[in-house]
Amino acid sequence: MRPHRSLWLTALAATATLLAGCSSGNSDEPSAQQSTAQQNVKLTFWTWAPNMDKVVATWNAAHPEIQVTVNKQDGGDPAVTKLLTAIKAGSGAPDVMQAEYQKIPTLVSADALADISKNLDQSIAGHFPDTVWKSVTLGTDAVYGVPQDSGPMMFYYRTDVFKQYGLQVPTTWDQYAEVAKKLHAADPKKYLGTFSANDPGWFAGLAQQAGASWWGIDGDKWSVSIDDAATLKVADYWGGLVQSGAIDNKPMYTPEWNAALNNGTQVGWLSAVWAPGVLEGNAAATKGKWAMAPMPQWTPDQPATGNWGGSATSVTSQSKHPAEAAKFIAWMNTSPEAVSALAKVSGVYPADQPGQAAALSAPPAFFSNQADFYPKAAEIAKTARSFTFGPNVNVAYSAYNDEFGKAAQAKSQPGFTAAVKAMQKTTLDNLKSSGFSVK
Question: Quick one: 3-150+309-374 is in which CATH superfamily?
Answer without folding.
Answer: Periplasmic binding protein-like II (3.40.190.10)
